[in-house]
Amino acid sequence: TLCQNWKKEFSKWLGDERIRVFVIDDKTDIKDFTVGKVFSVLVCGYERLRVCKEAIQNASFDIVVADEGHRLKNKQIQASQIISGLATKKRVILSGTPIQNDLGEFYAMCDLVNPGVLGNSSTFSGVFENPIIASRDPNATKEVTALGLERAQELSRTTKSFILRRTSAVLINTDGGSNLPPKTETTLFIRMTNVQQKLYEHIVGHNLIKRVIGGGGGGTEGTGGKNILGYITMLKKLVNSASLVTDDSAAGSEIGVNEFLSKIRGFASLSPFDLSG
């Protein structure tokens, strides 16, 4: 789905005539991209990338863009190794997931898009990772803390030249308001159908439910409060559609949901509109 969405974005902004996009899936052959010259863009998921790595390793790419780039946070990940081996001088990582406080993962992503800028992994650990981690220790000396702060600032200055970070601040205009249109929320209250109403009354009126609510235990294991979560979940499903609680769940079988529904005349032939409010 994500790959097809990328294809739609190319079509939306560039049109289908200016550039042709090839999406790798079960119905396509990678040779149509590598051998022919019809397609200018290749869109491939990380899982599929491992399958077609041999076919694309000799292809030349002007730029490689890795969406959901936080998935490449480890240099041992096969997809990361394949991307690193592609013949290209330009790599871009896109991610909406904040980078966690793991400097090793941060290094892996930086080294993927800008190889060698932070040295090899051993150099990075000695110069940046170890001093910064040591400075976070509550018992660290002033010298260790100062060194860690210095290295953290140096790391920030170095990576700032190729990391573009966007926050929610970009949505705020010069007047302090939002660049987005006003948000409109509409709440609709929908009555339950007759089937939903009958089943709801059956569930909440069952002796087992009454005992659980009253704190007297219940369920096949007598777990009381533990089982009430299952009943609440069942009621939440019910107010959406009676068809959602006709399964063989533990909570449903305990209070005879299926048996009760079978007694409703014509239940099997009811339409979704009869089962949903």
UniProtKB/TrEMBL annotation:
Keywords: ATP-binding, Helicase, Hydrolase, Nucleotide-binding. GO terms for molecular function: ATP binding; DNA translocase activity; helicase activity. It holds the Pfam family SNF2-rel_dom. InterPro entries: Helicase_ATP-bd, P-loop_NTPase, SNF2-like_sf, SNF2_N, SNF2_RAD54_helicase_repair. It comes from the Eukaryota. PANTHER family: DNA EXCISION REPAIR PROTEIN ERCC-6-RELATED, SNF2/RAD54 FAMILY MEMBER. This is Helicase. It comes from Physocladia obscura.
